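Anyone opening a protein record will find just a pair of labelled lines. A complete record is shown below as an example:
=====
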Amino acid sequence: MKPLITILAVSLTACASIGEPGKNRVTYESNFAGNHAVLAYCVTEKLQKDGRWSMRLLQFRNRTFQDTDASEILAHDMRLLPGVYARNSPTNPDAVMEYVSPAPEVVHTYDRIDQAYLMPAFRFSLMLKATDGATVSASLKGNLHLGRMAWQYLQTCARPE
């Protein structure tokens, strides 16, 4: 009887810790000085130049929204994206890498129910919203380790040189 209760308790605990797909908690949130588009471009450029293996596995999309004064950087694991084969896989040292330009992709409306967040390849999202002409509200959701690196780049880009 005791082993049955133990197995049941472990199963319930495991099921309770499973989160909903697409629901990511806010990892970081703060305000920075600057323009959202300039900061997003700078962060995307630094993320793409990062040579660490955990960053080499990611593909970054820099999106600018026309309806709201905001930019978003999405990070996806390339190994889990459709259309990735041995010839362009980031885990293959002989692969021909296809880097996406850090230039922003213009999106007409911000849709919260976007498939980009529901994909298994989703790692993090860095949202930059203009609060007024001189400051930006930033929030990062997703993977804690990878998000921390992106947040450090955002802090570097926001500092005047």
User: Anything to note?
Assistant: Strands lie at 26-33, 58-65, 70-77, 105-107, 122-130, 135-142. DSSP finds five helices and six strands in the chain. The CA atoms of residues 69 and 87 lie 38 Å apart. Residues 2-16 form the longest helix (15 residues).
